[in-house]
Backbone:
């Protein structure tokens, strides 16, 4: 059960609601976000919502049978748009392309990528400065100094930044330089990190775990929401299966299913999803048709020289082609709806 409370509800009314909820056998969890206050009732009994719904201080009340609650589509009418500022939104009919290198490698690379994105009307640049690498001997990213350079050029050009945060202690260092915190596939169930990201007022994109289920991704999002941050994006980036012909199995079923189960925007990552350059564009287009609210792709001026993920990075020309085709397919999707 979700009880949407009036924002300025008095303590007295809140106490009264909590005690009435307790009488029904439900346990109340108070959730206060940047946008509202909610009581999430957890319990198994069949109860009559009307006995609670008529209490003072309540905007509305919903029965949500899913195990995750606040991220469920069952209580919220329509889809959520996440606001990145300066008129840039993701979700609820606002589609965004995010593009950039796997890792930020140099200031020159940032400058060239920003120029390319502006020329192609792409609003969001991706790039890792703290990199999760399978081998400890691989390049681990330029760190906070790289992020400051990334921010300097993007903010001067109206481009928003999405970059990965790997641990709780990095949040404070990074927060002034980031527009979207990315939680990588290896950290989807780092619950301490999710708790901490719930306490900041910055959008968070959570990638699906390497072997994570759709529900597990939604529970991870619930951690962020229940800690106070409603600005969440979900990302399908492929999962590990028995198939060896490509890097990961991009699960486009998940895109369609997440759009139905949740009100949150869904982003598709065909770069990690297939891991082979020539298949990135077709899988991006398929992701759009599956209902995604955005795509995130890796691009590089010289993919063969990229420090990480060159095999799946598009050249600048291929990237421009992908943007054009993604926009055409999006138009078709809208015409079909
Ligand atoms: C990335 O975006 O470069 C990345 C490491 O992604 P994932 O966490 O999906 O592997
Ligand atoms: Mn990568």
Residues:
């Amino acid at each position: 059960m979700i009880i949407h409370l009036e924002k300025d509800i008095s303590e007295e009314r809140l106490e009264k609601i909590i005690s009435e909820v307790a009488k029904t056998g439900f346990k109340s969890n108070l959730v206060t976000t940047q946008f509202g206050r909610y009581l999430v009732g957890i319990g198994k009994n069949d109860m009559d919502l009307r006995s609670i719904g008529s209490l003072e201080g309540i905007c509305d009340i919903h029965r949500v049978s899913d195990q995750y609650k606040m991220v469920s589509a069952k209580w919220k009418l329509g889809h959520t748009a996440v606001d990145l500022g300066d008129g840039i939104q993701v979700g609820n009919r606002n589609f965004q392309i995010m593009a950039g290198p796997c890792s930020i490698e140099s200031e020159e690379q940032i400058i060239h990528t920003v120029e390319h994105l502006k020329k192609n009307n792409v609003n969001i640049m991706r790039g890792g400065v703290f990199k999760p690498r399978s081998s400890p001997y691989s390049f681990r990213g330029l760190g906070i100094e790289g992020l400051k350079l990334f921010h300097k050029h993007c903010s001067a050009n109206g481009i928003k930044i999405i970059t990965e945060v790997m641990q709780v202690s990095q949040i404070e260092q990074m927060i002034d330089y980031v527009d979207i915190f990315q939680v990588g596939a290896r950290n989807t169930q780092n619950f301490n990190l999710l708790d901490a990201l719930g306490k900041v007022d910055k959008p968070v994109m959570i990638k699906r775990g390497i072997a994570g289920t759709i529900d597990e991704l939604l529970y991870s999002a619930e951690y962020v929401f229940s800690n106070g941050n409603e600005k969440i994006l979900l990302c399908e980036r492929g999962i590990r299966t028995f198939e060896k012909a490509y890097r990961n199995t991009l699960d486009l079923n998940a895109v369609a299913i997440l759009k139905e189960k949740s009100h949150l925007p869904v982003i598709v990552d065909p770069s990690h999803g297939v891991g082979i350059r020539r298949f990135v564009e077709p899988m991006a287009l398929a992701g759009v048709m599956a209902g995604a609210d955005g795509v995130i792709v890796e691009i590089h001026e010289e993919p063969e020289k990229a420090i990480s993920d060159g095999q799946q990075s598009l050249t600048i020309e291929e990237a421009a082609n992908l943007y054009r085709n993604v926009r055409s397919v999006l138009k078709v999707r809208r015409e079909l709806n």
